[in-house]
Amino acid sequence: MQTGLIFDIKRYAIHDGPGIRTTVFFKGCPFSCWWCHNPEGLEMAPQGLYSQERCISCGECVSICPNAALKISSQGVVTKQSLCQLCGTCAKVCPAEARELAGIYIGVENLMRIIEKDVIFYDESGGGATFSGGEPLMQADFLLELLKACGRRDIHRAIDTTGYADEDVLMAIARETELFLFDLKLMDSDKHKKYTGVSNRKILSNLELLARQGASITIRVPLLPGINDNDENIHTTGKFISKLPGIKHVDILPYHEAARYKYLKLRTNYSGEKMLPPSEEQLSRAAQRLKRFGLKVKIGG
């Protein structure tokens, strides 16, 4: 059975597709978006997170670490990275939850046991399983096996994706997927590369391909003041979507600041440090401009 790397599982999710869902977050992403709200999902490897503010310097993690990689200092508990094996033992014993391990390897069978726990809620609400990230298409083999396993159990399958993958990979995944939640960030390729690290040409091409194949797609547009909320980008976005066969639903996802604390725990720089959430007026303006193209627009997931 395939094994994959995930960093979170959210049960009873209501914003990741229809009904009540279990959302599985895959590790690894080809993007480096300035505003990323899941920075712990970017690297294709487990990562240790540490919150000095929560740490009570009790020494539990130091005494139990099998590699003697931790020590207490004036800055809290310091990790000697060359000794740390990211085993997660310290996170399990920390009474203040100051230490976390982002990223565990798990097999399809074990993950399905978790997903299947809530089948009764899926059936009653029209929900199912959503695979998010990171970018789940980066672990295409693992994802495909999960989709097939869900299909055998008649569990509705959704993928939250940037669409950044080779066509043959995307088509194989599409055959086992009921719904794509497709991120559309910026229409200008140069600006897309500036703010995400990659061009959008493959993304737009894959979105067109999925639409032509009759895939069920909801477009998700993160609204980012000063980056993609200008009239030109919103107009170009609406015009592009309106020409795609079968696509009528657009969710506007307001940028939020909740991820700032994650960057502190990862001890990494946050490119969106100075970004602010959009105002109600900015959200309404973007929604109204998209509606002019005959699209059904919802603010929020």
Give a brief description.
By secondary structure, the chain is an alpha/beta fold.
Notable traits:
301 residues; 9-stranded mixed beta sheet; two-stranded antiparallel sheet; 13 strands; alpha/beta; 2 domains; 33% helix; TIM Barrel; Alpha-Beta Plaits
Class from secondary-structure proportions: alpha/beta
What is the CATH architecture term of the largest domain? Alpha-Beta Barrel
Low-confidence stretches: none
Describe the main β-sheet briefly: 9 strands, mixed
Rg over C-alpha atoms, rounded to the nearest angstrom: 20 Å
The span between the termini is: 33 Å
Overall mean confidence score, pLDDT:
95
From N to C, what is the helix and strand string? EEEHEEHEEHHEHEHEHHEHEHHE
CATH class of the largest domain: Alpha Beta
What features would you describe in this structure?
This protein is of the alpha/beta class and 301 residues long. The chain has 2 domains: 3-43 and 108-299, Aldolase class I (TIM Barrel, Alpha-Beta Barrel), CATH 3.20.20; 47-102, Alpha-Beta Plaits. It is built from 11 helices and 13 strands. Helix 9 links the parallel strand 11 and strand 12 (249-254). Helix 9 packs parallel to helix 11. The chain is globular and about 60 Å long. The model has no long low-confidence stretch (mean pLDDT 95).
Describe the SSE topology.
Elements: E1 3-13, E2 21-26, E3 47-50, H1 60-64, E4 70-73, E5 76-79, H2 89-93, E6 99-102, E7 104-107, H3 108-116, H4 119-125, E8 128-132, H5 140-152, E9 156-161, H6 167-174, E10 179-183, H7 189-196, H8 201-212, E11 217-223, H9 231-242, E12 249-254, H10 260-266, H11 280-291, E13 296-299
Helix pairs in contact: 9-11
